[in-house]
Amino acid sequence: MMIGEKIKKLLINEETSLVKPAEQVAVVGIKNRLNHALLLLTTDKYAVVPVLDDHSKMCGLISMPTIMQTIMDIEDVHFEKLGEIEVGEVMDRNYPYVFENYELEDVLNRLVHHAFITVIDDEGFFKGIITRSEILKGTNRIAHEFERKYEVKEKEAITH
């Protein structure tokens, strides 16, 4: 089932794109050490950030739990490992993404389980992210404006 055009129009604000452009997204490089990723995550209070290679291609995601699991064992936390291990060695390579010509249904389905999804081009270059927050802003807009803009009537029940 497709999302109706009128709902889509309210969900996606015409003045702004759903996609937060790559240059506005905090990312780490695949060759950065874990200490760099940890600083970014804690300083900017992110839960997870995209990992890019030297050519700005999407490689994976790195998160605080991944970093902590990497430097911990049953008895201790080995903080010295933060400066020794590269992000690419431990990042999550299984990440949600859509291509630039995405369908809104795909975005909504993936955002059910993720705070954001990455947007890539056909060659894997990172183009930005779409956040659950942006979709919720649109949902809020629908909840407040739909009946102000459109006349809504219930359809009669179909009986067989």
TrEMBL record:
Range of residues in the leader sequence: none
Residues of the CBS domain: 87-137
Pfam families on file: CBS
Transmembrane parts of this sequence: none
InterPro entries assigned to the protein according to its UniProt record, in alphabetical order: CBS_CbpB, CBS_dom, CBS_dom_sf, CBS_domain-containing
Keywords from the UniProt entry: Repeat
Domain of life per record: Bacteria
NCBIfam families associated with the record: CBS_CbpB
Name of the molecule in the record: CBS domain-containing protein
Organism expressing this protein natively: Alkalibacterium gilvum
